[in-house]
Amino acid sequence: MNEFLFVKGFTWRMVYDPDQSFAGNRAKESLQTLKETTGIDTIVLAIEAKQATAHTEEIDFQGKFTPTDEEVREMIRYAKEIGLRVILKPMLNCLDGTWRAFINFFDLEVPCEPKWSNWFINYTNYIRHFAGLAEETGCEMLIIGCELVMTDRQEMFWRKLIEEIRKVYSGLLTYNADKYQEGEVKWWDALDVISSSGYYPIDQWDENLDRIEQVIHKFKKPFFFAECGCPCREGSSFIPNDWTHTGKLSLEEQRRYYEVMFEKGKERSWLNGYACWDWTSVYLYEPAPSVNMGYGVYGKPAANVIKSFYEKEKIIL
């Protein structure tokens, strides 16, 4: 099993573009630029599967929104070629736009209604497929789920899934819990690493880190933020998880958020890294920083804060 290293990371998403390959020259240029811009040593390579609605049992991981196995192999190969570690993150989203946190079924299974048991069979097949790819390509870690809040209570199904994944993948396993949900996952003991989405208000880091610390001490596992970040809009630093928040462009608000997040994190010896959200394989097509008010940091002051922190931070804890 891989040694857990401090994660100087960024989420790099393989995004569907009808005019470009998931692993073409543009994607590679994007990844190289990400490394140079932010000083990362690790990418969380995020791929996407789809299900129709939050109450659909079937999961499509071979459609147009999901890169082919060969495209994933090629980007992992390239990432390692330019000196990056790779954490593979198969994600799941709904075609109708419902956030994945709301994927849900009756706890008591009822005839003729969609069921947890069927969904977990399909979800396990999805994760197991890419777990095999992660093993083949030497990924340092696999994230088996992301922000699937309503599934968290299905402990039996998750433990069975983890057993199945360990049959094909020998590296580190984690689950990306949603913000505020770290203490709701009762099956951390079955995993190697605890991780979550760290979208916490800029003035509430201390209380939330105190809360997470209790979970870390209980399970005695390493921890890192598998997602974190802030849009560059006025007011977003107080509700960084709200990508729909409207406000005027504020590059300074985003920069300050990262600065405070890193300052607060350095006070916690158990916080073993970050994978900022997010950078895409098609970043060249994104709006210029002067009008792009999302989480991206390309061409923005926040990138300098991230790079400065990563260049100074220790690697192994």
Query: For the record, what is the CATH homologous superfamily label?
Result: Glycosidases
SS summary, helix count: 7
CATH top-level class: Alpha Beta
Q: Could you please say which CATH topology applies here?
A: TIM Barrel
The oligomeric state of the chains shown is single chain
Instruction: Compute the average pLDDT.
Output: 94
Give the low-pLDDT segments.
Answer: none
Number of strands: 8
End-to-end distance: 17 Å
Beta percentage is 15-25%
Q: How many structural units, i.e. domains?
A: 1
Secondary structure: helix percent:
25-40%
Secondary-structure element sequence? EHEHEHEHEEHEHEH
> What's the overall geometry?
globular
Q: Rg to the nearest angstrom?
A: 19 Å
Spatial order of strands in the largest sheet: 1-2-3-4-5-6-7-8
Main sheet characteristics: 8 strands, parallel, barrel
- In the CATH hierarchy, what is the architecture at level 2? Alpha-Beta Barrel
How would you explain this protein's 3D organization?
The protein has 317 residues and is an alpha/beta fold. It has a single domain (7-312), classed as Glycosidases (TIM Barrel, Alpha-Beta Barrel). The protein contains 7 helices and 8 strands. It has helices at 25-38, 69-81, 116-137, 155-166, 205-219, 251-265, 301-312; strands at residues 7-13, 42-51, 85-94, 141-146, 172-177, 193-197, 223-227, 271-280. The chain has an 8-stranded parallel beta barrel with strand order 1-2-3-4-5-6-7-8. α3 (116-137) packs parallel to α4. The protein is globular, with a radius of gyration of 19 Å. The two termini are 17 Å apart. 42% of the residues are buried.
